[in-house]
Write a structure and sequence with these properties.
single chain, 171 residues, alpha+beta, endopeptidase fold (from Nostoc punctiforme), 6-stranded antiparallel β-sheet, 16% helix, TIGR02594 family protein
């Protein structure tokens, strides 16, 4: 799917996150040095020691930090992102979306939506940074950055066609 508004005038969290599209974890004893550097930058390198450990929360922490916001306490736990920013009822571009999954949670950024799925920019989606569709009924939290000056005008809902890869388990 083509997301024409993902970079043009998008909130800083989306522009920053999109820079990493295509970053993949490495299976086995080797680890992706980019992902591992995020752990050091976020300050969790002592507990995050392998890119095969779920890293959606690490990706979101890296992006919000780089965009000038403070990550949540214990950012590796996806469900902790329900404490980020300001609670919202309607998701818009750049919002942090928190999802429930068997065995835990998942977190990423709203890019768009169709009737039944959010289109989410996130890490550890099929073991990479990607945009995937995640069922809206799995969403347990919508959080908006506390904008320092004013909310960017591109922070709005984007309704798109219902196509693209569907994610069902981001473990």
């Amino acid at each position: 799917m083509n997301y024409p508004n993902i970079l043009l005038g998008s909130p800083k969290v989306i522009a920053e996150g999109a820079r990493y599209l295509g970053i993949n974890e490495i299976k086995g004893k080797a680890h992706n040095t980019t992902i591992m550097s995020w752990a050091k930058e976020v300050g969790v390198q002592n507990i995050y020691t392998s890119d095969e450990v779920a890293w959606c929360g690490l990706f979101v922490a890296k992006v919000v930090l780089k965009a000038g916001f403070k990550p949540v306490k214990d950012p590796l736990w996806a469900l902790n992102w329900k404490n980020f920013g300001t609670k919202q009822n309607i998701a818009m571009l750049g919002d942090v979306l928190v999802f429930k999954r068997e065995g835990g949670g998942h977190v990423g950024f709203y890019v768009a939506e169709d009737d039944t799925y959010f289109h989410v920019l996130g890490g550890n989606q099929s073991d990479s940074v990607s945009i995937m569709r995640i069922a809206k009924n799995r969403c347990v939290g919508i959080r908006r950055c506390d904008w320092k000056i004013a909310q960017p005008p591109t922070v709005k809902r984007y309704i798109v066609a219902a196509n693209g890869k569907i994610s069902t388990d981001e473990s």
